[in-house]
Every structure is written in C-alpha cells, then in structure tokens.
Amino acid sequence: MKIIFLGTNGFYDTKIGNTVCILIEAKNFNLILDAGNGIHKLNNYVDWKKPAFLFLSHLHLDHIFGLHILTKFKFEKPLTIFTPKGTKKLLKFLINHPFTVPLENLPYKVQIKEIGQGRCFNPIKFEARYLLHAVPTLGFRFEIEKKKIVYCTDTGDCENLRKLAKNAHFLILECALKPKQ
Questions:
Q1: pTM (global) more than 0.85
Q2: Nearest 5°: CA angle at 50, between 128 and 18?
C-alpha cells in the first residue's frame, strides 16, 4: 500500500502545490480522498484496471475543483463516488453542462453513493463521522491491508475526530479555525 499526496494546499494553488487530493494505492483498489485539482496527477500513479473509490469529505470548491477533468481518466471499472448525505443532487448538478462533461457522457461508468455517519463494510471497510466545519463534512477511517488510515479535513478539534483517530496507523489531518477565531 502507498499513500500519495497529489495536493495538500488549502483554497489556493501555489507554484509547488495543488488543492487537496490524496491517493491510496491498495493491492486491489485505488482510494482517492477528495478531488481538489491535485487529482490531475492521477495519470502518473493509477492502475486503471483496479476499481476506484472517490471519497468527498464535503463539497467546498477546494475539495471538488478537479471533478471537471474526470473525462481525461481511463477507469476500466466503474468509479464510485461517496459524498455526504444530502449532496448527491448538488454534485450531479456540478458535474454537468455548462460546467463540465456530464457523468453519463464520461468514458466509464460512475456511481454516486450518499453516506452519513456510520460504518460500511462493502466494497471497502470504513467508518464515517461528521466533523466540525461550516458545512456537513465527513471524516473517514479506513481499514486497508491491516492498517487503519484516518482522513479528517477542514476541522477543528471535536469528539468525532478523536474517535476516528484513536489507534490509527496513519492520520491525515488538516486543521481549521472555529467560527470567530
């Protein structure tokens, strides 16, 4: 398993960085965390034959900028996008004309699944919990190849962050300020 940081910046690009996107190359699948414009680097790393799962923590622009280039990818199996509960309709609106190529016109199938707080064991084992942010934002805890990997972004300290992070092998964390701080 490899964890590859394709983008780690906040809202703005810099000369050496892109907005957030992280690739976890597992033996049997590719896991993509958020779709900032760092996602354009997938071509350098992804085995297109493996199933791919894209987890969106929330729909602020710096986490979804890269969705407009989905058309350049060559997934051979359907891409499954997990998005916070209540955001599927908005996501389908954004991945459509006039902004970009609609999902149904991509050269591969795409499934969108809404998720809320809880655990899931299929197709991969993960737990999602709501974090502290201005919009509903999910943090994730994945169990991949006997390792616990936690991804929490745009959050301040909160109980769900601590629960997800407990005994993790890897914690990928971006901190933010609480309102009025």
A1: yes
A2: 65
